[in-house]
């Protein structure tokens, strides 16, 4: 007997059909409800069809704590022992060569010279969380944050580790987590893409668009690059020299001529969908600029995010934009701190102090501003904020001189806040050096499972049929959400 | 063996292998691969998996890849079958960052005289280059450091005391040149290395074997802006920096040559730990190796420095010689005859690598040993690869595989291929799941037709053109797409092909059609991929935006989309938004999604708007000033038919109203009409 699995790339007849009706198709991955012949037959004969955006909102299959996710991606890999993973025993070891197993871009090592943490730690909040002097502002928010100190990843090399953090796989070709969310939930606001990415002004991360690609899913689920300055979205502005009234007239005539074409092809809903998509695009053109217009924000808010012409201005704008996107129903927003190569991101191989002062200094106030602003608006409860890089850093030096640290995927820190996550807690532990996760190890897949879970998606059931297999973000072996931090 | 794919798998192993057949094997290099894998063994199997998985689906319509970790859950394909298939490719050399993915080929019609001309030209070039190079090196060695900025990297050679290297006299194996390689067991010695008494040498560590591999680690807090490598070698030397090859020289030198390696080596440098790795190979004795690397925090232009200080440093006579040689080199380079040899992306084999069934797909859990064999569902028979299939380093395995795949007796290949050809014409295959003819796939809607077409295909000698002709001359192909209520009710999915299903142009067809309509499609075939302009917002997504893409001439940029360079991380919005295939896995059937961002690209995008202006110009030139004739001309081009009077009327009205709305001149009104025409559904959807 034939199995009737949801199948996109192969486009089994019924899938083909759902696709033809313009897009309710994504819902199929979530529920088999539509897969009844009667439904399709009746749609087939509809003389005209409403445009159904593939990104139309879909109800979450499970109770959702969060409606949106803001993933603050610290590209390059921040050092845990210099930020949130307090290791008092590491300071006195500074300069001593000790036995410790490490694996980074410089390969496997059994002993290296310790670089003591370069910043002091201080206790913050009611929970008394130790945070380094790199993050005095985020320190004030610790009672809303759950720290994951025992993250592990499969690779300590940027390219594959980025793909792992974004798509759950070491090789490209798999949908990124934002695409999974787009596929699972759609976008509440049809005038904006459901998955947006803001990059560092220095450039994208390694592998560029592969980090927000939809892989084997349709391209409509991929991330859309949003800019905080200039035209916010590709091709959002009218072409040069075309005024608004002109564009409207042009669109009206386009619709009329397309409707003439449609009249003898009345059953083809792809054609009517395409007609409707131009209207939707027009609406995007008129509403998106408002969504990204920060001028309307009161100066107090701008100040909160560090939008003041100083070094925090750029990341502050991005964080504020992220909040505005959340308010407008965008599901998944990724904001990159760091891009390009070497010290243009958190990849502190050379001078640790210079590197981390730069990137932490650029982002500390904006991130704290975002958390505080979300909270004061009552949005933090339904917005999941995730902070972290593709891996962490070693407690030891990379080379003979200097303070630079190599990559570390054996143990690193990430944190989450809001969206049904407990505040003021820290789970998992690394060893006394901060080199290796030893207690409650959380693989990247557990983080992914937690994010999906908070959005009301079952990480082990959200799947997409491709290449003969039901594929999921968390892989064939599955992964459970991190229960310890869920309210 | 005939067929379109007869070269793709074994092109390098065929008795009549040539540039075209070797180039075809590049297919096996196009899968995704990790250039810095955390787990090399796994990465190797991932690479082989990509070839087996893709070939299985593409040629055989079988999801063989599903049997990597366990027997296929649905189809009769065992893990043993999977690894037996994988072993056909087991000896293909691994992907490397260095040059080894490229194979040198000789053009298909080598003319002996042209070959000789080229050789003479190269000899002369090398001769002058050598002279220029030696004078430059001499200058650099003698130049007073006060004319140079302060160095921020200084790895010295034996002339300044030498450098401590790790070295190995036995072959260290794969990946020895990469940063992460463990060299703790290697010996330690100070440069130079070689046989004492070799002319011009300063030997601190004796080396008298054939090969030496060396590694030196150094730290950097800040990257230099310019970099100079001085080296002395006897004989062939290859230098890697962080796994990337930055220099290769054959033969031997008698003095320290200096090269400006700023362009080739600085992109490989990184802050933190760097590894310089060197292999020197000796054949006739008198070995020597030494090098130094100097980096400066500011750019250094050696040519300018020589012009300024050359006379005093080199003496007037030698400075004049330098200038003369430099002039003749420039002149000589302009006379370059076409190369008959060029590098192509292709596969080669090396060694004999046993393959085991891997339990749960884990490279650390090897099970029983397997040998090349076809999936057992096709019948148990022992494969014997004829001895004469072995050529050079190649096992001949891929030739044996290709012969089986392309055999008229293979029950899958011809059916899978005719089904694809059918799909390209009709929008769907007779088997809709064109990569999966297995139990999870769809049944053929017309099994007898599929069998008959496959038979015709084999009979014709796998002639694709003949198959196009056959299909396109069928009644089914010629049917109208117009709906009929009765038929829609009985067969809404058009399983029976009672009509032709309308289809949207595929991404590449959209772009090519726009270029064709505007009259600038360049139909030139073959050659290097082209890089049409990309919007800035796309380029900025690259980690190095200024180096991410090329800059083709407008004529080259207007070539068909199959010649547009595919860079996985950077894609043209016009193609991507129209659901081009994902570049990482085989895509049997394109998606056809409709989203507002497509409309944005088609209305506001740079490419479409530039095209609209070109298109309008073409209309003006062909139709003259009358708006009616302009619309008629424009619509006839986008529709490929004469427009109806009411369509022309609608177009004329559009021009009038848009002119009114925007206060436009007639010229501008036509420009807008051209943009509208490129956005019409009838242009993008085929009836």
Looking at this structure, what is the CATH superfamily of the largest domain in chain A?
A: Alkaline Phosphatase, subunit A
- Shape annotation of chain B: globular
Number of helices of chain B: 23
Q: Largest interface, with Cβ-Cβ < 8 Å?
A: A-B, 129 and 119 residues
**Total count of domains of chain B:** 4
Major sheet of chain B: 6 strands, mixed
Estimate percent helicity of chain A.
25-40%
Oligomeric state of the chains in view: heterodimer
Supply the helix-strand structural class of chain B.
alpha+beta
Distance between the termini of chain B: 38 Å
H and E order of chain A = HHEEEEEHEHHEEHHHHEHEEEEEEEEHEE
Question: If you had to describe this structure to a student in words, what would you say it looks like?
Answer:
The complex is a heterodimer of chains A (487) and B (687). Helix content of chain A is 29%, strand content 18%. Chain A is built from eleven helices and 19 strands. In chain A, the strands form six sheets. In chain A, strands 1, 6, 7, 8, 9, 10, 13, 14 and 17 form a nine-stranded mixed sheet that branches. A two-stranded antiparallel ribbon of chain A has the order 2-3. The longest helix of chain A has 25 residues, at 352-376. Chain A folds into two domains: 68-232 and 292-485, Alkaline Phosphatase, subunit A (3-Layer(aba) Sandwich); 244-288. Chain A is α/β, with parallel strands linked by helices. Chain B is an alpha+beta fold and 687 residues long. Chain B is 37% helix and 14% strand. In chain B, the strands form five sheets. In chain B, strands 2, 5, 6, 8, 11 and 13 form a six-stranded mixed sheet that branches. In chain B, helix 20 (627-639) packs parallel to helix 22. The longest helix of chain B is centred in the N-terminal third of the chain and has 31 residues, at 112-142. The model of chain B has no long low-confidence stretch (mean pLDDT 92). Chains A and B meet through helix 1, helix 2, helix 4, strand 8 and helix 6 of A and helix 2, strand 7, helix 13, helix 18 and helix 21 of B.
